Amino acid sequence: MPSLKERLNLDQVKRSVLDSQVWRSMFRHGYEDTPRNRVLMVVDNLWLHLHPTKIRRHAIRIRFTWCMGGVTFLLFLYLVVTGVVLMFYYRPVGEYAYADIKYLEFDAPFGMFMRNMHRWAAHAMVIAVWLHMLRVFMTGSYKPPREFNWVIGVLLLTLTLLLSFTGYLLPWDQLAIWAVTVGTNMARATPLLGSEGPFAEMVGVTPRFDARSALLGGTIVGPPTLLRFYVLHCIVVPLIAAILMMVHFWRIRKDGGISGPL
Amino acid sequence: MAKEDKVVGSADEMAKTSWERVNDKVHVWPYLTRLEFMCAIIITIFLIVWSIVIDAPLEEPANPSVTPNPSKAPWYFLGLQELLVYFDPWIAGVVLPTLIIVGLMAIPFIDVNPKGNGYYTFHERRFAIFTFLFGFLVLWVWMVVQGTFLRGPGWNFFMPWEYWDPHKVVALTNVDLPYMLGFRSYWGQAACGTALVLLWYATIPAYYIWRRERMKNVGLVRYLIKASLNMTMMGVVAKMALRIGLNVKYVLVTPWFNI
User: Fold this and answer.
1) A95-119 residue pLDDT tens
2) Residue B13's pLDDT is what?
3) Which of A177, A163, A183 has the alpha carbon at shortest distance from A97?
4) Of A53, A120, A157, the CB nearest to B51
């Protein structure tokens, strides 16, 4: 009598799955190590097709790129995922916000872990984006033809700081409101547009209606500020950043791929 | 190992002709994707461990009537908060941040040096690298470190081993620079301050005239932008030195704004 293994031919099962119409409709090719397949691995994959199929040898060295652009993007993706989880539990309302954070920390499954990951990934992203800028500067990669992508990069750096800053308010604790108070107090010193800035009296701005109050939705960092910063943090700034990221990645390819000695 | 799999050193790389260098390519799959995968795994492990070991801070509920001392901005803005010691808020909080962003965006357009494009070099672009590293490491990163660890109550300076005494007494004997130079009348001080600021920026056209032969490939407009940004950055340093070394409060005082 044939053994179970002989009767159940695993190779045949595998082949029938891999050759089935359903499998083939999802995955066009296997992992065969041929030059043609290596190219297909990249161009047939939505995520990998950001890459060219071939890349200059020096560009894959860690000590050339430090991997910091990719790390920044990876951290952004982690922030989106953990941020959406936090949004399930968090209400940007003066009465609820702090209690919701406490609930996240003590009752929600993995709530503390998600909050920690969101906060630390945000800090790490700020550092990663600085290091990315430092690397791009040190390799002179902003030089022609990549000038415009450097400009996009500076905007993305600014947006990263703005994302981090708007998120800083949301726990609605003492650390949050006073840090944001210190930060937004600068807005009232804006020349012409801030109530305490130079030439304010010529424009006629008041503490209630000036650059700072437009940002805060009032004269102090209060519940209206919380809602504004929540909308900026979860919708406005991430959307703009995502659009600029698309342009940034697209331009790397269109400007001749990653920089290198000519 | 196929020929393609070998990663050559940088000396060999530079010895090749430019055509050889540009066309010396490897497949992205697997040579880049495997690196990205490893990098992603390392960062992920690092982040997970960090998030398990250290909890995010959470203080008492927000209370507008209790102001902590010191009140600090988020750590990455502490360099800007540090500037408030030396400048009025409209400069420290609005003008200088704007100039930092605009100045960074202007870098590719004011740096006309064609060398050092796509590889590490110091001696081919000394000035650019020195300026950038000075701004980044000293004026930004160091200020963040100082603001985080060395600034205590009242934004006073404390060494790491010192107790953060909220009643620390610091003599505020700052005077304006024109007063220090002997100008006592209102208009005398205003004239002196204006002259000092103008003198600072007068170095820009002076240097252009002195080095006009070398400036031909830079161009006047590009030079003016580049030099203004540079002199403003060095002006921040000068004002900091005056404040720390000579207790100077303002250089220029007017009824509308002070510098």
Assistant:
1) 999 999 999 999 999 999 999 999 9
2) 59
3) A177
4) A120
**Burial classification of residue B32, based on how many CB atoms lie within 10 Å of its CB (0-12 exposed, 13-18 middle, 19 or more buried):** buried
Residue B65 touches partner A, C-beta closer than 8 Å: no
Which pLDDT band, with edges at 50, 70 and 90, does B217 fall under? confident
Cβ(A87)–Cβ(A97) below 8 Å: no
Test B62 with A181 for CB contact under 8 angstroms: no
In Å, how far from its chain's centre is CA A86? 16
Q: Which of chain A's residues have a Cβ under 8 Å away from the Cβ of B104?
A: 133, 154, 157
Residue with tokens 């209630």: A208
Q: Residue B14: what pLDDT?
A: 61
Residue with tokens 């959470």: B58
Partner residue opposite B7 with nearest CB, options A61, A126, A137: A61
CA B51 to chain A, closest CA, distance in angstroms equals: 5
CA gap B210, B204 in Å, rounded: 10
Domain residue spans in chain A? 66-254
Given a cut of 70, whether residue B188 has pLDDT beyond it is yes
Q: What are the structure tokens assigned to B105, written together? A: 């965006």
> Chain A within 8 Å of B160 (Cβ-Cβ)?
no
Quote the CA–CA distance of B93 and B80 in Å, as a whole number: 7
Which residue from B71, B76, B92 is facing A181, i.e. has the nearest CB? B71
B45 → chain A, closest CA residue: A117
Cβ B24–A57 below 8 Å, yes or no? yes
User: How big is chain A by its Cα radius of gyration, in Å?
Assistant: 25
Residue B174's region, left for phi above 0, alpha for psi from -120 to 50, else beta, is beta
Q: Encode A187-201: b = buried (16+ Cβ within 10 Å), e = exposed.
A: bbbbbebbbbbbebe
Give the separation between CA B133 and CA A158, rounded to whole angstroms: 19
Q: Say how many residues make up chain A.
A: 262
Architecture in CATH for domain A66-254? Up-down Bundle (1.20)
The pLDDT assigned to B216 comes to 83
Interface ipTM > 0.85: yes
Q: Give the global pTM.
A: 0.92
